[in-house]
Structures are given as C-alpha cells and as structure tokens.
From TrEMBL:
The entry's DNA-binding region: 17-36
Residue stretches making up the HTH tetR-type domain: 1-54
PANTHER family from the UniProt entry: HTH-TYPE TRANSCRIPTIONAL REGULATOR RUTR, TRANSCRIPTIONAL REGULATORY PROTEIN
Record's keyword terms, sorted: DNA-binding
GO MF entries: DNA-binding transcription factor activity; transcription cis-regulatory region binding
One Pfam family matching this protein: TetR_N
Protein name: TetR family transcriptional regulator
Cited Gene3D superfamilies: Homeodomain-like (1.10.10.60), Tetracycline Repressor, domain 2 (1.10.357.10)
Keyword DNA-binding set for record: yes
Stored InterPro entries: Homeodomain-like_sf, HTH-type_TetR-like_transc_reg, HTH_TetR, Tet_transcr_reg_TetR-rel_C_sf, TetR_C_16
Length: 175
C-alpha cells in the first residue's frame, strides 16, 4: 500500500501504472492484479479514507459556534499534517484532477461526509452551497500547500493558517 500510495501521489492516477507500483514495491505485477483486480481496485483501496467522520463532525461541532471555522481548519490541517494523511490525500488530490473516481471520492468525503453536516448546524437553507464553498477553500489550500508547494504557505504554521483561514470558513458556514 505504501508503494501504491507513493506512486499515485507522485504521478496521479492516469500516469501511475501497475508495473511502476510493483517495481516500487518489489513484487510481481500479477500479484496486484490478483489481489486488487487491477489499477482501479488498488486505487480505491489506497484512497479509502480511514477516518471516523462521525467523530470528526462531533469534534468540529462541539464548541462555540463563533469558533466553528477555526475548528474546521484545525481538523483539516491535522489530517494533512499526519504522514499517512498527507500521502493519501496528495494521491487523492493529484488523481482527482484527472480521474472521476478520485474526484468523486474527494467530493463525497468533503461535502457529504463532513462539511454539509457541519454547515447544517447553522440551520440555513443553503447549507450545501455553503459547504461546497468551504470545501473549495480547503481544497485550494491543500493544493497550494501540499501539492504545488508555494512559499510562504508551505512553511506557515498551522496556528497562523487557522487564524487566517478560519474567519473565511466561519463566514461560509455560519451566516
């Protein structure tokens, strides 16, 4: 899995090959076909998001409404800052740009599993729109910080990003 995750993160879904992944893992490519039924099955396993979204939503929603945006940013960055999370999500983001399966996985995770449930807390009619705006901001942040790696965003502290991005997400999620 580590080799596949690294290959998808480095090359994206379309450019990654089973042979390249097998070479990295030092295994026979036939094993990947056998156990994962091809590249699509392996990719689905690699980008499966092993997070307890109910616990994440609960931790985001627990606390003052006035700090909701900050908690969303803190939670998002804590996942990205973990080595396993970063590799998994870089692979997902890179692949989502060229592959509908990856785009759907990212879209479902951010909007349906997390942000719509958080935005619904405010009771507004346009919670899904607000959640998608928050998702666009977070995905943009992730692309620039972890994929394209533009300075000084790459080396900005998590606390600095929370203080700068939190108010914008607050505005999206809580009118």
């Amino acid at each position: 899995m580590v080799s596949a995750r690294a290959e998808f993160a480095d090359r994206g879904y379309d450019a990654a090959t089973l042979r390249g992944i097998a070479r990295r893992a030092e295994v026979d490519p036939a094993l990947l076909h056998h156990y994962f039924n091809g590249k699509a099955g392996l990719f689905a396993e690699v980008v499966a998001i092993p997070l307890d979204t109910s616990a994440i939503v609960k931790s985001i929603n627990d606390g003052p409404t006035a700090e909701l945006g900050q908690r969303v940013v803190r939670t998002f960055l804590s996942v990205w800052e973990s080595p396993d999370g970063r590799d998994r999500f870089v692979a997902l983001i890179r692949s989502a740009l060229s592959n509908e399966q990856a785009a759907a996985a990212l879209r479902e995770f951010l909007t349906r599993e997390l942000l719509t449930k958080v935005a619904a807390r405010s009771g507004v009619a346009d919670a899904e729109l607000r959640a998608s705006l928050a998702a666009s901001h977070l995905v943009g942040l992730a692309i620039v910080r972890y994929v394209v790696m533009i300075e000084p965003l790459v080396h900005a502290s998590v606390d600095e990003l929370i203080s700068l991005v939190g108010p914008t997400l607050q505005n999206y999620l809580v009118p």
